[in-house]
Amino acid sequence: GAGVSQSPSNKVTEKGKDVELRCDPISGHTALYWYRQSLGQGLEFLIYFQGNSAPDKSGLPSDRFSAERTGGSVSTLTIQRTQQEDSAVYLCASSRDRESSYEQYFGPGTRLTVT
Amino acid sequence: AQTVTQSQPEMSVQEAETVTLSCTYDTSENNYYLFWYKQPPSRQMILVIRQEAYKQQNATENRFSVNFQKAAKSFSLKISDSQLGDTAMYFCALRDAGNMLTFGGGTRLMVKP
Fold first, then answer.
1. Phi (first) and psi of residue B93, to 5 degrees
2. Of A11, A30, A38, A43, which to mutate for an interface test with B (greatest number of B Cβ within 10 Å)?
3. What pLDDT score does A97 carry?
4. pLDDT confidence of residue B99
5. pLDDT tens for residues A67-91?
6. For residues A29-63, b (16+ Cβ closer than 10 Å) or e, as one string?
7. A35: chain B residues, CB-CB within 8 Å
8. A81, A72 Cβ separation under 8 angstroms
9. DSSP-assigned letters across all residues of B6-53
10. How confident is the model at residue A80, as a pLDDT?
11. Which of A19, A28, A84, A96 lies 20 to 30 A from A74 at CA?
């Protein structure tokens, strides 16, 4: 079946502009995660959605970052007034449920470059 | 808060040889899961192997196996009969009741012909 997809694959934007990154999780997966991977670094948790529950936003680095998940499926990560330090690969993952045993399946990521 | 540490930024191994990647972690939870992910240049994160903390038996997946030492909070990955396609970044990750994954900084593995 189809895996997690993300769009765009690459995004170049000017400092100060807003950007939207999209994630389509695996059909039927109720849990969705956003991570950020800076150059040469590990992944940093940003936000987590589980079903219709309020999202866990504890990893968002500033109030310029927000995310929503419509209809329990597609998610959009929005970064307002982008800064150069926002340049990174943004990875989305989905999981069958919130149980710790369930594997998280990752998308190919969006590489964001802020000039 | 949980932490994951990978002390080897880069490693290399000759094709067909065996290599071990190190990982240590810290968590206050008693029930958790540990993972090794592979990230080739394509950026796609691929699950290599998973270990449940309540299981004493070390997980194995074909050429990949782990040495899980719960008391020492150590979770190393052994790759046997290394292949050129194993060249990638390898990330150790922890998932506990908080649901999100906590990742180590990664180890870049180069398999040399």
1. -145, 150
2. A43
3. 74
4. 76
5. 999 887 999 999 999 999 999 999 9
6. bbbbbbbbbeeeebbbbbbbbbeeeebbeebbeee
7. 101, 103
8. no
9. ---SEEEEETT--EEE--EEE-S-SS-EEEEEEE-TT---EEEEEEET
10. 98
11. A84
